[in-house]
């Protein structure tokens, strides 16, 4: 099983640690794309801060994030699971999981990133600011760079793919058709007075709790049906459907308590 998580906009900058080593990151097949994007981002932010601010969608008050990117080559790193912050990662509470669940997480979690492509929780990365909708002037759109190479990585992974990414990161690198029959995307719905509605902010917390629950279970689901059973055991309702125009089934997780 591979659990795909989105990154977080907010990050905890490591105070100490080794400098980034791109070759040390998981999935070596992503290395050429990583180096190209990394080099382009650092160059943009170090040579043209104003253009970088616009390209990254930052305000004047966020100029410090451009500076953060400009020194990525020499910035301290820490395990990705401790760099990414925010609602989902707070709910996942990785460091509070039992040791065996953490070991499973190091092997089963893949964190999506516009800068790194995919990283494992234990990969050493610095804090940065670069999202799926960023665009580097004169550089290819990010989906053109990441979709082909990440698609090959996902196709090579074994077992069920549980996609908890946000829509922006799904578009950055869609699940390839070749493994659509063993993948599932997740949508969080809230039931109020008998009616279902899509939730935004709180869906991150629910996905974090579900990821934590899947890691706690020593029994790895081999099918969508088995995944539904595990999610129901966590106290949620779940039902599968195929959204129009997509090949990957969608799993609606329905909750009353967010």
Radius of gyration, in Å, reads 18 Å
The number of helical elements comes to 10
Q: How can the largest sheet be summarized?
A: 8 strands, mixed
Strand content: 15-25%
Low-confidence stretches: none
Helix content: 25-40%
Shape: globular
Number of DSSP-assigned strands: 10
Structural class: alpha/beta
Tally of structural domains:
1
Distance between the termini: 26 Å
Q: What is the N-to-C succession of helices and strands?
A: EHHHEHHHEEEHEHEEHHEE
Indicate the mean pLDDT: 92
Descriptive key words:
258 residues; alpha/beta; two-stranded antiparallel ribbon; 10 helices; 38% helix; 17% strand; globular
Topology readout:
Elements (H helix, E strand, L loop, with lengths): L1 E4 L25 H17 L1 H7 L7 H8 L7 E2 H4 L3 H6 L6 H10 E5 L3 E3 L4 E2 L16 H15 L4 E3 L3 H6 L10 E10 L2 E4 L2 H16 L7 H10 L3 E5 L8 E6 L3
Parallel strand pairs: 1-3, 1-6, 6-7, 7-10
Antiparallel strand pairs: 2-5, 3-4, 7-8, 9-10
Helix pairs in contact: 1-2, 1-3
């Amino acid at each position: 099983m591979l659990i795909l998580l989105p990154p977080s906009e907010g990050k905890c900058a490591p105070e100490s640690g080794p400098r980034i080593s791109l070759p040390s990151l998981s999935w070596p097949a992503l290395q050429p794309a990583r180096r190209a994007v990394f080099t382009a981002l650092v160059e943009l932010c170090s040579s043209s801060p104003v253009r970088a601010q616009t390209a990254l969608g930052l305000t004047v008050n966020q100029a410090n994030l451009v500076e953060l990117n400009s020194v990525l080559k020499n910035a301290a790193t820490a395990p990705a699971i401790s760099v990414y912050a925010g609602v989902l990662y707070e709910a996942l509470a990785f460091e509070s999981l039992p040791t065996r669940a953490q070991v499973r997480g190091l092997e089963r979690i893949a964190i999506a990133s516009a800068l790194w492509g995919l990283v494992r929780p234990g990969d050493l990365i610095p804090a940065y600011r670069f999202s799926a909708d960023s665009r580097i002037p004169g550089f290819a759109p990010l989906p053109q760079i990441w979709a082909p190479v990440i698609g090959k990585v996902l196709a090579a992974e074994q077992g069920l793919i549980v996609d908890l990414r946000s829509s922006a990161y799904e578009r950055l690198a869609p699940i390839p058709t070749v493994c659509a029959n063993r993948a599932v995307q997740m949508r969080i719905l809230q039931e109020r007075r008998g009616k279902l509605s899509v939730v935004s902010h709180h869906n991150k917390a629910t996905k974090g709790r579900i990821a934590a629950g899947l890691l706690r279970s020593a029994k790895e689901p081999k099918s969508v049906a088995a995944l539904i059973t595990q999610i129901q055991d966590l106290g949620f309702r779940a039902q599968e459907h195929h959204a129009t125009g997509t090949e990957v089934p969608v799993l609606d997780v329905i909750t009353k308590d967010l």
